[in-house]
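Fold Annotation — chain and its backbone
Encoding — discrete vocabulary of local shapes
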Amino acid sequence: MRRKPRLLSLPAVVLTAGFLMLFTGISQAAGVSHHGTRKHHKPPPPPEINLTHIPTGPTAPVIMQPIGLSIEYPVMAHDLGSGECPAPALVNELRRLGSPPLALAGASQDLTAPSGVLPAQRPSWQASTLYSLPANFWSQLHCLLTSTSDPLTAGINMKTGEPAWAAQIAAGAQSAATNGLDFSIGNEPDLYSLPNYAELSKPQGNEETTMVNMYLGLASVLDQAIGSAPLVGPELAIAARWRHQLPRVIAQLHEAAVGVHLYPLTACGSSPTASVKELLSEDSANAPRSLSWVAADANAAKVPAMLSEANSASCGGADGVSDSPASAVWAVRFVLSALKTGFRQVRFHFSGGPYDPFIVRGSEVQDRPLQYALVALNEWLPVGTTLETLTDLKGLDATAVGGNASAPTVILDNESTKAQTVVLRGQPSVHIVVFDATRSGPQVAQLSSAADSIKLTVAINSVVAIFTGPQPQS
């Protein structure tokens, strides 16, 4: 079930619930002095944006589809269903997203075995935790990808798999892919345990080098199974642990793209940090900036960097937070921050938890608020557009989008503690798409002004995309 965006056509409107206030005029409030004499305070004029002449400055190019998906193997198997081909609803969902890159990855990557290789009786606890792919998994996936044309990244089990399994997984992936294929070797290898490490009273001085050597040694074995296929990785959980060795890993594995993981919050254990307030904080929005050095390392190696696994909070997210309308506002902020930091793509993770952008239930797909934002971002920021941060807009974060007439001209974001007003000049009419932390799905409106001056007040914790070209689809 999907909600259609609401379409409003109005020159002046006030929307309640703290959503968005749009005015063609603003009244002046009167104050009272301490002597009781009524004194008029004229507020300072709101900042202005000339939509036909936006100042140019340093820009960030969009060179890849900004949104991708990272899906656990068991979740993908569930979503494919029991038929020869998946339900049309899943096909339509991926098409609606723009057929984004689809990665089979996550924690299950290092727990997945090819179909038929595991004995009926598992001889050990480790073997009992392994996941066996269904016999028709790759043929079902091929049917899906034939209809959607999503590029495929196939995760290879490094931690618990046999070398022979890698060849079988690679062959299955090759049979399924229809629009490009690459591989990921191992998931979060910076969390792998070293031999006898638990017996040590303190970390080894050369821990980073030792871990990287172990990873590269295992990778050299698995690399034979995938041949010359491009690699994405090294899929680090906490990239800073390999900060000194990352350039070496990129060079030795000839990575086609540098992928690391990032979750601004956690829903794990007894000390979760996930809340709507924290999700909407500046730290959560700008978390990609903490990994700017990863993007710099990738740029030095002349390969793209991506956040190959990301979402609101680790451990599957938190109910009432990761599946709330606030997640859509956070996602727009997070992706814009990532792109302007130098990352080329953000792949949102599916684990069967609250942060999954959508849920497949039988033959139907249920969208969550996050999904609406991902669809919008892939529509708003096609390959070839550029992003530029605008300054001098007090209380608002503003991003100019250039290079495509169908893209928004400006995206405004209000992270402050009160509503912020801005004057739009240069166009008698605009379309806007709004994501608000209190409402699910995009709200769409057409605004006009005979005076060629539109006053727009952006509510707290909302983002507004302003279009001067064709009406947006979102």
The first strand starts at residue 6 and ends at 10. The two ends are 16 Å apart (CA to CA). Confidence is low (pLDDT under 50) at residues 1-35, 196-201. The chain has two domains: 6-24+43-60+386-467, 65-380.
